[in-house]
Write a structure and sequence with these properties.
There is one protein chain. It is built from 18 helices and 19 strands. With 513 residues, it is an alpha+beta fold. The protein starts with 8 loop residues before the first strand and ends with a helix.
Length: 513
């Protein structure tokens, strides 16, 4: 009967018998003696493979026969063991065999390797393009799923772990659930949200959460711990893993190395990691490269705008970027766009931005300039500059006496900012408006650039002055474009916009898996 290319042969409960020796495999009769001894012991032999280093054989048997097979071969080759010609005869238990036909075995192997599955044994029939691989039983279902996706038209399953289900995280989960069927049909990718966590607890669902996910999170009892997530992924043999960090946590980012080492690709709207000391920044890139993992963070700057990708492509192409300037914060864009045109107080507009979900959980992250500074530093590092956060000159918009108070107290005392900012507004030149900008400049061909974050006054008729709503605005100056910068402008804040950008990164990682 002709082999069906889509058919997969799957045998569990097997053992590998390893038969190792020195310079004896070329001898006539060794294979025959092995088969004869095992046949007389009524042991069925599966795959037999000669090791590439020519010092042994691997024989597949049912795990119930493994101990008997080892003892049988020890007796058969007693003389060779005493002389040292045969060095070891032992078993590797708890393995499974997967047999399949493929036109491109190297691609299958690459996908298995991407998921940290490395066959213990393989046997190929080149004429029929049939392959048998042996994997540990702890990875057999995962290996089978990967192979099925590669050799058939079955959608590839991608398992998502969402960390943080606040404004952005909640919007993202709902976007994934609403779009999942369309993506399955259009891109042949089956997205499953299998874990949702906050700072206290984590909920799991191997089949993938549905629209009632929040109820399952509320009733979850497992403490939020990365090791619990890794354990869950291994116990359930989940392939194509992506961790999505939608937090603003300074602590969670330190798990990125461990996650990459355990088979997770990373997608993050959290800006913290990319602004850690340069040595940690570079060490993660090394870990990602070593483990063949990806880390996408387009929403770190500009929410859903294609800014980081544009800068990466320009830089990789050899284009000399000479300056990057603009309104980096959708939050502060909203604040100053409205404050410049309306009669409302500064505190009223800050409260309004907070209620709309434009600000960080603590508005001081925006008003302090730290959020803009992080974004500016992230872009500097995309140009291979080695600037650190303390290199940035930041104008903090928060009065000194409110910097260290609690978040609740700060919000209750917002009115204390009104008089100062009303005065700044009134002291501008006629026809000018306020904008809070980031500016990366200096000789960007050196190791470090100049980074400034400050409040400026610009003509209302200028490109910066005409910004509306919460739009972000970026000017990228390059040697080739001269005085005419590349301009990227658009929605720079809001949970839905940011979540859509994160979703885009998820799909980009999924398509390369």
């Amino acid at each position: 009967m002709k082999n069906n290319a889509k058919e997969i042969r799957f045998l569990k409960n097997r053992s590998i018998i390893k038969f190792e020796g020195k310079d004896f495999l070329g001898e006539i009769g060794i294979d025959g003696r092995i088969f004869k001894a095992l046949t007389l012991a009524r042991i069925s032999v599966g795959v037999i493979s000669q090791q590439a280093i020519e010092n042994g054989l691997s024989i597949l048997v049912h795990e119930n026969d493994s101990e008997k097979a080892v003892n049988c071969l020890i007796d058969e080759f007693e003389a060779e063991r005493k002389s040292g010609k045969v060095s070891q005869i032992y078993s590797i238990n708890n393995v499974s065999v997967i047999g399949f036909v493929t036109e491109d075995f190297n691609k299958v192997l690459a996908e298995l390797a991407r998921n940290n599955v490395f066959p213990l044994l393989l046997n190929q029939n080149l004429s029929e393009k049939r392959v048998n691989i042996v994997v540990t039983s702890s990875q057999d279902e995962k290996a089978k799923n990967i192979i099925e996706s590669e050799i058939s038209k079955k959608p590839k399953t991608v398992h998502l772990a969402i960390i943080g289900h606040g404004n952005v995280g909640k919007a993202l989960i709902n976007q994934v659930l609403q779009s999942s069927e369309e993506i399955r049909q259009r891109k042949k990718i089956d997205l499953k949200v299998v874990a949702v966590a906050n700072s206290r607890k984590i909920a799991f669902n191997k089949q993938g959460f549905d629209h009632h996910w929040n109820d399952e999170v509320l009733t979850a009892e497992i403490p939020s711990d990365v090791q619990e997530l890794i354990k869950f992924s291994k116990e359930n043999q989940l392939e194509n893993l992506i961790i999505v960090d939608n937090t603003a946590s300074k602590d969670f980012v330190h798990n990125y190395h461990t996650l990459a080492e355990n088979g997770f690709d990373l997608v993050s709207s959290n800006k913290i990691f990319n602004t850690l000391p340069i040595e940690e920044y570079r060490q993660l890139r090394y870990t990602l490269n070593k483990n063949n993992r990806r880390y996408l963070y387009e929403t770190n700057v500009g929410a859903g705008l294609p800014l980081i990708d544009t800068i990466k492509l320009l830089h990789l192409s050899g284009e000399n970027i000479t300056r990057i300037k603009g309104v980096f914060s959708g939050t502060l864009s909203y604040v100053f766009n409205n404050f410049s045109l309306r009669e409302d107080t500064f505190s009223t507009i800050i409260t309004e931005a907070l209620e709309k979900g434009y600000t960080e959980p603590d508005p001081r992250e925006d008003l302090s300039g730290n959020d803009v500074a992080r974004k500016l530093l992230i872009l500097a590092r995309e140009l291979d500059l080695i600037n650190e956060f303390n290199d940035i000159h930041i104008q903090n918009l928060v009065p000194q006496n409110l910097i260290s108070v609690s978040k609740q107290e700060f919000q209750s005392r917002l009115g204390e900012l009104d008089q100062e900012y009303q005065k700044i507004k009134e002291n501008q030149k006629p026809g000018h408006v306020l904008r809070y900008v980031g500016d990366l400049h200096g000789d960007l061909q050196k190791e470090r650039g100049e980074l400034d974050v400050k409040l400026i006054s610009v003509p209302a008729t200028s490109a910066l002055g005409q910004l509306k709503g919460s739009d972000s605005f970026f000017e990228i100056y390059t040697e080739s474009y001269g005085e005419h910068p590349i301009v990227i402008m658009g929605a720079g804040a809001g949970a839905q916009v940011t979540a859509r950008g994160v979703f885009g990164d998820i799909l980009r990682v999924s398509e390369t898996k």
